[in-house]
Automatic annotation (TrEMBL):
The chain crosses the membrane at residues 15-37, 49-71, 91-113, 125-150, 156-179. It is a multi-pass membrane protein. Gene3D superfamilies: 1.10.1760.20. Keywords: Cell membrane, Membrane, Transmembrane, Transmembrane helix, Transport. Belongs to the BioY family. This is Biotin transporter. It comes from Hoeflea algicola. It is found in: Cell membrane.
Length: 192
């Protein structure tokens, strides 16, 4: 969308564009969830990269809307999550070991988008810090839910945090290189 088109678009046109972008974001999340490395109890995927990237590229409202749409699709039983069969398990899957991380996705997209809006996307270093912070947000509800579900006597940090640290550092670096350019392009064109 050109700057002129963005400035002259009617409210319904802007809403339709935003809805299509949120749908595309939820589809990207689905694809990222399907390329997984099985790991117990939480699989390794690229979804955290996409969640943080959606926030950095689309801002807090639209990035969070894309993640919310993805979660609603999963809750409705669509096979959007990692390891869900063709007919998804919906809320039952969301109540499992990854449930807290799924909630963390919403928070991370919002935080990454807010930090991008406040200028954290101006340099790769600042974008990296924003991506790290947003990524860390995912672990708060994720580990809390994992401990509640499996029991605090289990090695929760060894299962739900430690295996992911190096990968998340790499994903944050990649997000810092890729998504701020998208945010700058979208905002320079008048936003969505």
């Amino acid at each position: 969308m050109t700057l002129y088109a963005a400035l002259t678009a009617t409210r319904p046109e802007k809403m339709a564009t935003a809805a299509l972008v949120a749908l595309a974001g939820s589809m990207l999340l689905t694809l990222s969830a399907k390329f997984a490395i099985p790991f117990y109890p939480v699989p390794l995927t690229m979804t955290t990269f996409v969640v943080i990237g959606l926030g950095l590229a689309l801002g807090p409202r639209l990035g969070t809307a894309a993640v919310a749409l993805y979660l609603l699709q999963g809750a409705a039983g669509l096979p959007v999550f990692t390891g869900t069969p063709e007919k998804g398990l919906g809320l039952l899957y969301m109540a499992g070991p990854t449930g807290g991380y799924l909630l963390g996705f919403l928070l991370a997209a919002f935080v990454a988008g807010t930090l991008a809006e406040r200028g954290m996307d101006r340099s790769p270093l600042l974008a990296f810090v924003a991506a790290l912070f947003a990524g860390a947000i995912i672990y708060l509800p994720g580990l809390l839910w994992l401990g509640t579900l499996l029991g605090w006597d289990k090695p929760i940090l060894a299962w739900g945090l430690m295996p992911f640290i190096l990968g998340d550092l790499a994903k944050a670096a990649l997000a810092a290189m890729v998504f701020p350019a998208a945010w700058s392009m979208i905002s320079s064109q008048g936003g969505l």
